[in-house]
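Q: My labmate handed me this sequence with no annotations at all. I'd like to see what the chain might look like in three dimensions before we decide whether it's worth expressing. Could you predict it?
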Amino acid sequence: MLSPLYWWQEFVRKLQELRGRPRELSLGIAIGVFVGITPTIPLHTVLAVALAVALRGSKLAAALGVWVANPLTIPIFYYGSWRLGSFVLGMSELTLPTKYSVFSIMKLGGHVTVAMLHGGVLLGILPAVLAYFLTYRFTSSPRFQGEPSSTADDTDETGE
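A: Here is what I predict for the chain of 160 residues:
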């Protein structure tokens, strides 16, 4: 099994391969993280890229940012989305209907979906903001941009 360190290193490697201004890359990652946390799994990449186009962020960085959603994190995000959404909307605990019908199941599904969408949007705001600022700091660094850092040992008296 691959370690979380491996996945982090792979993410950083992919980010370093992207080209663009720090603002565009950071906005793309933030959009991807935000969308990745929302309960819209079949459309994560499509939504992230569409938002990146609309907000002028990096489309590739947005697609990379949705990697925050994976088989280990999706159950946590979805449960958290449902709990937060049902709390914010003032919904009572989920109870199964006593008479099962297609309409009762659809109604139950609609309430859960609405709660999860509301909760997912609220849950995604803070990680997206953090992702933006951390990525901006990372992509603005000379090390990321491939600029050599000058030290006193690298220069002589003339500054060359």
